[in-house]
Amino acid sequence: METGFYVLYLIFALTAGLILLIRAGKSRAHQLFGAAILLLGFGDAFHLVPRAVGLFTDTLNEPSADLAMWLGLGKFITSVTMTLFYLFLYIFMYKRTETNGPRFWDYTVSLLIILRIFLCAFPQNNWITNDSPLLWNILRNIPFVILGVVMVILTHQILRHIRSFKWLWIMIILSFAFYIPVLLFADRVPWVGMLMIPKTVCYMIIALMALSDLRKVRETERETTAETNNGQTL
Q1: Which pLDDT score is estimated for 226?
Q2: Fewer CB within 10 Å: C terminus or N terminus of the chain?
């Protein structure tokens, strides 16, 4: 079941990202969101494919050296791309609302993202052996969780007035609520890793929000064009 879900998710992420890119037209904001979804799916594939192999071969709890390496490197790549997803989302918010954010938030988000990727790059994370110490699991995720809190605040303030994104901040809260137990306990209690499924569902819902918003924007543009053409005809 878990393996099948991962396959469906990766197909969904690639499809949703491509649809947003292709159908965005002149909307730079939705093009950016499409790129963000593609990046997220691409990065997740590096982690989910080795995990699916481990599940399918019943070797996830005691992986071979090669599988452990791919699982670890997959976690590293996913950590980076998931962080960059929030950078894209931050930029999208202001492009979508055609506003400029305070410099304070620009600097805060940039600092948290740089710090997160910097901590992920430390060899003490033991990505190659897929045996990251709990201390480093916590250290590298401190800026990421803070970034999540910042994004919850900003999406609630900026995007909740747009109908498609009204509950986006809730999805971000839920995604972190499912992620944190995995971070803390998955190495000792493997079944906790199943919480990555509802976490992933949250990102799928976010992608659906973007698709819904793009549809409504395009409908508004068509109505405006039709009204303009009618006015010119009259």
Answers
A1: 65
A2: C
